[in-house]
Design brief:
mainly alpha; about 70% helix; Arc Repressor Mutant, subunit A; homodimer; DNA-binding; 6 helices
DNA sequence: CGTAACCATTAGTAGAGCTAATTAAGGGGT
DNA sequence: ACCCCTTAATTAGCTCTACTAATGGTTACG
């Protein structure tokens, strides 16, 4: 395509905007009582479903020993279960509990509400244009 | 405005997309040789200019003692300077060095390039629509 | 001036990251 | 059937990153 020099600018600004957006929303996480790594690991389990330790570590971009301890603390907090995987007794199957799901969803709602409050100030046409941009971004990330 | 139930969906999807985007780009940071907290603090200094310790801690959402040690390690690495603030000798003025700027820019380029590679696959009209969405997002974050 | 408020750092502890080593279970090959 | 090699998770031991509480200097002000 021809407009590549524009894409570079779009990429730069999208990158920077994503950083600022999440930095802003992260302030709400204090209310959850969980640290960022725990919250993030729990989030992966809730949205992706049960995973092995290696899969969860890979998704979170940490090494297995790190995730092993993180999971241990989540188990102690009752937010996650860890059991021997069916079919391979070396492996473990880690899953969010109902309480873990509830806690995560409450936190996610707090974050999203902050964003909604800002989006509500947009004009109708701007809201539609932003929604279309999000559609395209989702395809880019697939 | 009337389309608020749509905005809630847009907010949810934007939130989730931003998380996945940064998670993807973060893989490139390994090549910088700096930890995430150091890279992030350096980034604030490069883009916002020189700051006091308290300002930098606040921007990074950590307590002053944490930032004090983080800055110490960046000073030792030659990426940042720390000197007594002119006009108030209690305060320090922390600034990125030329080397810090170069290192950060190289890392940012690696991240953005990954994104560019994906955006280049978009059709011309999609690229324009995404750019428009980024414009609107930037205004939302102001 | 002298005291209160402020800025940064030091002290001490817990959490989160790493590599290396260990334990346990699968999966062959002969 | 057995030995060996690989794989999955954990444990051990280290560093870095986070917190609160306490300390050392500076500034501001009554």
């Amino acid at each position: 395509m021809t407009g590549d020099h524009r894409m570079e600018e779009t990429a730069t600004r999208l990158h920077s905007a994503a950083i600022r957006l999440l930095r802003m929303l992260r302030r709400q996480d204090e209310a959850s009582g969980l640290s960022a790594p725990r919250l993030s690991a729990l989030s992966v389990l809730v949205f992706a479903g049960p995973l092995s330790l290696a899969e969860l570590a890979s998704a979170e971009q940490v090494r297995p020993p790190t995730m092993s301890r993180l999971v241990e603390s989540l188990v102690e907090a009752g937010l996650v279960t860890r059991e021997v995987a069916p079919g391979d007794r070396r492996s473990v199957r880690i899953a969010a509990t109902e309480e873990g799901r509830r806690l995560l969803e409450a936190g996610r709602q707090r974050r999203v509400q902050v964003l909604i409050n800002r989006l509500e100030k947009l004009a109708e046409s701007e809201g539609r244009a932003l929604a279309r941009g999000v559609d395209i971004l989702e395809r880019v990330l697939r």
